[in-house]
Amino acid sequence: MQSWEIRPWRVYDRPYPEGYRVLVERLWPRGLRKADLALDYWAKDLAPSTALRLWFHHEPARWTEFRDRYLKELQQQPEAVSALISQAQGAPLLLLYATRDSEHNGALVLADYLRNWPAP
Question: For a designed S-S bond to 107, which of 7, 83, 95, 120 qualifies (C-beta 3.0 to 4.6 A apart)?
């Protein structure tokens, strides 16, 4: 398990805490320029698939199944997960997401997945 801090953070909430900033969305957030985020990395490959995102449509009633399906997708991406962890180099990891729903989003699932990832 990883011991460093991993925080999901909404891209529209300012100021950003210190840390390695990773956008975990497949689509660029509306109304923001790339310079606005000062990203360290855009992890499109670790975001929920387009099909899963469209199916979920941020419906809280689908949350449990979304979480299960997304975890299965993440299990198919061990190289991308390892690369992200390696790039962060132990710095606090800030997982940036765009949705208004702070209780039902992919960044929360990814954060839990990373916290439980085996340490190198």
Answer: 95
